[in-house]
Amino acid sequence: MRSLLQVLGRILLSQIFIISAIMKILNYSGMAGYMTAYGVPAWLLPLVIALELGGGLMILVGWKTRFAAFVLALFSIAAAIIFHHDFSNETQVILLMSDLAFAGGLLVLAGS
Q1: pLDDT tens per residue across span 43-80
Q2: Residues 71, 27: contact at Cβ < 8 Å?
Q3: CB atoms near residue 40 (< 10 Å)
Q4: Contacts of 88 (CB under 8 A, 6+ apart)
Q5: Helix/strand/coil (H, E, C) string of 67-85?
Q6: Buried b / exposed e across 12-23, counting CB within 10 Å, b at 16+?
Q7: Is 90 exposed, middle or buried (0-12, 13-18, 19+ CB in 10 A)?
Q8: Band of the pLDDT at 112, cuts 50, 70, 90?
């Protein structure tokens, strides 16, 4: 049962990053504009896509899981701070907490 739960957990944690990377590819120019609006250079977008897709797939298949989880946790914290810092906007606060919750789950995975 424990291994089944671990696989399910890896699927659930990884899917957000894999799907997010695919959405960034499909809306590349829109995402580049969104990033630059927050002061993040658009040339970083391919690296973000590679990190989300690669890290998500690594967690999904269980290869270098601890490393991928740790890096994605740091990425999630950075994304939360950069993109969701408008505390007057309830949606932004929820997205901030969600990114931090993902980071927490990833840190648990990285430490296991």
Answers
A1: 999 999 999 999 999 999 999 999 999 999 999 999 99
A2: no
A3: 17
A4: none
A5: HHHHHHHHHHHHHHHHHCC
A6: ebbebbbebbee
A7: exposed
A8: confident
Distances (CA, A) of 60 to 9, 55, 88, 93: 9, 9, 35, 28
Cβ atoms of 20 and 55 within 8 Å: the answer is no
CA dist 72 and 102 (Å) reads 9
Which two tokens mark 83? 């993109």
Contact 51, 75 (CB under 8 A): yes
Answer yes or no: are the C-beta atoms of 58 and 71 closer than 8 Å: no
Q: How is residue 30 written in tokens? A: 């829109």
In order, the DSSP letters of 26-47 are HTHHHHHHHHHHTT--GGGHHH
Query: Token match 């890096």: residue?
Result: 71
